[in-house]
Write a structure and sequence with these properties.
Mean pLDDT: 88
Number of helices: 7
Distance between the termini: 22 Å
Low-confidence stretches: none
Structural class: mainly alpha
Radius of gyration: 24 Å
Number of domains: 2
Strand content: under 5%
Order of helices and strands: HHHHHHH
């Protein structure tokens, strides 16, 4: 377990500067491509020819998606940069999360059965909080709650949302019940359950 944690830590240490350097290079290429696409650089110059021949093909997969979604081709380099930055942040955070969970599991295993029970309870509350977040994020995009990728979040959180809806009034058109549910889970139920578990 410790070997995996050390390997993940080393991987994160390598990927962080790689993503930063890649972001800087991609930002420079995106700026150049944007300048050519918007004719801030003479479209007949050698710089424009090199950009269209060597740099723009890198943005082609993003361009197809942006244009298909109704976006303007001049914005493609910035969409590509944004996608790269978001992908880097998500990957580093996921790896950091996995590393933290493995470290927590190793610490819990060292404490025996009581440590593992506390870890499982902590993971359960973490999963419930993630389910609430997914449910709220899905409501921003008006997705169908019966969609297969979303149904699990409703199944895990409806037990706490239903009674809270009868108590918590909406603020205008905003349903604050998920926020209240998150606070109840994180600051009331989890500490209460953790306090009665053996150490």
């Amino acid at each position: 377990m410790n070997t995996v944690i050390v390997a993940l830590d080393a991987l994160i240490g390598i990927l962080r500067p790689v993503f930063f350097a890649g972001g800087v290079v991609l930002a420079a290429l995106a700026g150049l491509s944007y300048a050519v696409r918007t004719r801030r650089i003479n479209p007949f110059s050698s710089v424009a020819r090199v950009t269209r021949g060597s740099i723009d093909p890198l943005f082609a997969p993003v361009e197809r998606r942006v244009v298909r979604a109704g976006g303007h081709p001049t914005t493609v380099p910035w969409w590509a940069l944004a996608a790269f930055v978001v992908a880097g942040i998500v990957l580093l955070n996921v790896l950091g999360f996995v590393e933290a969970q493995l470290a927590g599991a190793a610490s819990a295993a060292a404490l025996g059965t009581a440590g593992l029970v506390r870890l499982l309870v902590s993971w359960t509350f973490g999963l419930l909080q993630i389910a609430l977040f997914v449910r709220v994020a899905a409501s921003w995009f008006r997705t169908d709650p019966r969609a297969p990728w979303l149904r699990w979040s409703y199944a895990l959180t409806e037990w706490i949302m239903r009674p809270l809806r009868q108590i918590v009034p909406p603020l205008g058109m905003v349903d604050v019940t998920p926020i209240v549910a998150y606070l109840v889970l994180a600051y009331l139920l989890q500490p209460m359950v953790m306090s009665v578990l053996p150490r």
